[in-house]
Amino acid sequence: MAWRIGQDGPNSRSTAFDPSHTIHDAFFGMVSDDCDSAARPAILCGDRVISYADLDAGSNRLARYLIGKGVGAGSLVGLFLHRSPEAVLAMLGILKAGAAFLPLDPAYPADHLGFIAQDARPAAVASSAELALAHGPDRPWTAPTILLDAEAGAIAQESSAPLPGGGASDDLAYVMYTSGTTGRPKGVMVPHRGVVRLARNDFVDLGPGDVVLQLAPLSFDASTFEIWGALLNGAALAVVSSPRPSFEEIGEAIVRHGVTTAWLTASLFHAMVDRHIDSLRPLRQLIAGGDVLSPGHVRRALDGLPGCRLINGYGPTENTTFTCCYAIPRDAPADAPVPIGPPIAHTKVYVLDEALRPVAGGEIGELVAAGDGVALGYLNRPELTAEKFLPDTFGGSPGRLMYRTGDLVRQRADGVVEFLGRSDRQVKINGKRVELDEVEAALRRLPEVADAAAILRAHGSGQRQIVAYVASRVSPPADASALRGRLREVAPEHMIPALFVILDALPLTPNGKIDRDALPVPPAWRGVDGEPAQASSEVEAKLAAIWRRLLKVPYVGLDANFFDLGGSSLDLMALHEEIRAQFDDVPMTALFEHTTIRSLAARLETRDAGKLSIADIQDRKQRQNEALRRIWRRRTMSSL
């Protein structure tokens, strides 16, 4: 039978949380119990099936190879790989070598990657020939690069026998960079115990009979739950390798691999409920979070997925992905905010006032997290660590820390926590944390920008988007598309504003500060950006109608950029679906190449690709490669 956490039975010891275990200790328990355990599928990806025994043996070989390259205890190894079975094997091999891994997202611009590499100074970087060689000699890191595919023969010569035990649960497992208020990201140092505590928990029900969807980017901490929640409980991990899967591809992966458990960002959850709720029917449990859930979408999900347990998941990277979780009851009202729930097992939460004193029950305060999930602090940031990570004076073990989240909450008498907002300018976009101060700082570093402001605005049906207001330093002022392109060169995609509004000057308060309340509604949202579409073909007319409906604007110009009108990556997924229904199927990459109605219509009207010249084909290939990189930068799950 499929084993479940919390059951009394023969495997209960191996699936219980042990605060002394490292990640690889807990994984070893999944392959050492008996032959049947080792033969179970660990990773599913397309037609590939990798067993627990194969994953164990392969990671042992890689660990020995890394040790031979000088990697060991205290080392940090970069992981410059897309979501894939190889990435999971590399993580496990790095940990078995006694080192910690550092996700380096190939979608990030070189400037951003260069800062992370300079700050973290990895001892080596694991990658593939295709990804590493794409940067040529100008790689963002100076550390030796280990090409897992090109060096596969040498790695295979290493012994697959278990390595000697070593390491402690408080050792560093990985460093994950998040948005920072100073204009540069900061690296969160997560220990082994935090990950084991996350995986060996009771907010979800996981065991050998389950399959967990792996959809999050490796640089997004949702992947921590997906990967280790599966592998430390004997479940299978279904990896979606497509860099930018469509709604249909997500649904196909769920059905093909028999997925029982998935984690979706709030925005993707809302979109799937609106457009593809049937794709979620096979799920036994669905966690949604990373931002506030819409009560209406929750109600529709509860009604439409009677066999699925719906859970609201909340937590910062600094407390290892999840702090509180709320199993939403079937009779939840359709118009009430969804609580974030009580703290998960091996976790404590305190609601404190500005003086860090507990508030009375039901009063508003800052949520402070404690317990086994709290990170070790920020890499190379002792001042910020001292500010955010404080000694737990409310009952924690000696030396343990508690983390100030900055989230305003109230705790009910039954222990359930209700999220009320932020105490600063941090926001969540598609599940990823963004500091608006960092967006402004990145804009101000552009030579053509005199000053900038970034705020969060609700658009259309309530979708929240970052809007940037820019005072130009040059004449004529840079247009929105140019600024978007320039910002993409220095900032990751989740930091790129949905809209850029160019102003002669930013409005100021009497004391000379930016008056954010006086910033105007974006012209594109009022339908006054550009001229109405004068369609010259039926395809253009149909596309204009689709754009107006998706973007909720009165009209669009034939040469208006989809993203400059406020289109998000989720909107593009919806556009792809509409095009498939009304026209021929086109790859998602084509939509990133052709971002205006005129250009996209011409692409759809082109039927005979055989008439393309060699130069045209080479040019298209180059544009498709660039589109692929843009897709990775704009992905939702960032989630996805």
Automatic annotation (TrEMBL):
<dbReference type="InterPro" id="IPR010071">
    <property type="entry name" value="AA_adenyl_dom"/>
</dbReference>
<dbReference type="InterPro" id="IPR020806">
    <property type="entry name" value="PKS_PP-bd"/>
</dbReference>
<dbReference type="Pfam" id="PF00501">
    <property type="entry name" value="AMP-binding"/>
</dbReference>
<keyword id="KW-0596">Phosphopantetheine</keyword>
<dbReference type="Pfam" id="PF00550">
    <property type="entry name" value="PP-binding"/>
</dbReference>
<dbReference type="InterPro" id="IPR036736">
    <property type="entry name" value="ACP-like_sf"/>
</dbReference>
<dbReference type="InterPro" id="IPR025110">
    <property type="entry name" value="AMP-bd_C"/>
</dbReference>
<dbReference type="InterPro" id="IPR020845">
    <property type="entry name" value="AMP-binding_CS"/>
</dbReference>
<dbReference type="InterPro" id="IPR000873">
    <property type="entry name" value="AMP-dep_synth/lig_dom"/>
</dbReference>
<protein>
    <submittedName>
        <fullName>Amino acid adenylation domain-containing protein</fullName>
    </submittedName>
</protein>
<keyword id="KW-0597">Phosphoprotein</keyword>
<dbReference type="InterPro" id="IPR009081">
    <property type="entry name" value="PP-bd_ACP"/>
</dbReference>
<dbReference type="InterPro" id="IPR045851">
    <property type="entry name" value="AMP-bd_C_sf"/>
</dbReference>
<feature type="domain" description="Carrier">
    <location>
        <begin position="534"/>
        <end position="608"/>
    </location>
</feature>
<dbReference type="Pfam" id="PF13193">
    <property type="entry name" value="AMP-binding_C"/>
</dbReference>
<dbReference type="InterPro" id="IPR020459">
    <property type="entry name" value="AMP-binding"/>
</dbReference>
